[in-house]
Specification:
Helix content is 13%, strand content 38%. The protein has 110 residues and is mainly beta.
């Protein structure tokens, strides 16, 4: 179990995917994403293994929930600056987590 104080330290924010590109150097199929978290956080890069359920066009403009206060992580030649959240379905493909309706970029999970 973690404490409420521990949970409050995790910044889970909504952002909009503004750019998607292939990540051929990744060990498993993945995309490189740029996500806009609004003026307070800015645009952050992330790598996501979501190619089973999403093509690049379907991701543009999609709002996602991401952890924005992890330190940058080197993934091969790419530096990930946030962790986009998702859950595995029955087949093991990742389904992204995000709001049902549009909210302001940068809004924190409450």
């Amino acid at each position: 179990m973690i404490s409420w104080d521990d949970f409050e330290k995790v910044e889970l924010r909504v952002g909009t995917i503004i750019e998607v590109s292939d990540f051929p150097e990744a060990r498993k199929p993945a995309y490189k994403l740029k996500v806009d978290f609004g003026p307070e956080v800015g645009v952050r890069k992330s790598s996501a293994q979501i190619t089973d359920l999403y093509d690049k066009d379907s991701l543009l403009g999609k709002q996602v929930l991401a952890v924005t206060n992890f330190p940058p992580k080197q993934i091969g030649p790419f530096v990930s600056e946030c962790l986009v959240t998702g859950v595995h379905n029955e087949e093991g493909a990742v389904s992204l987590v995000g709001p049902d309706s549009g909210v302001r970029n940068g809004q924190r999970l409450c």
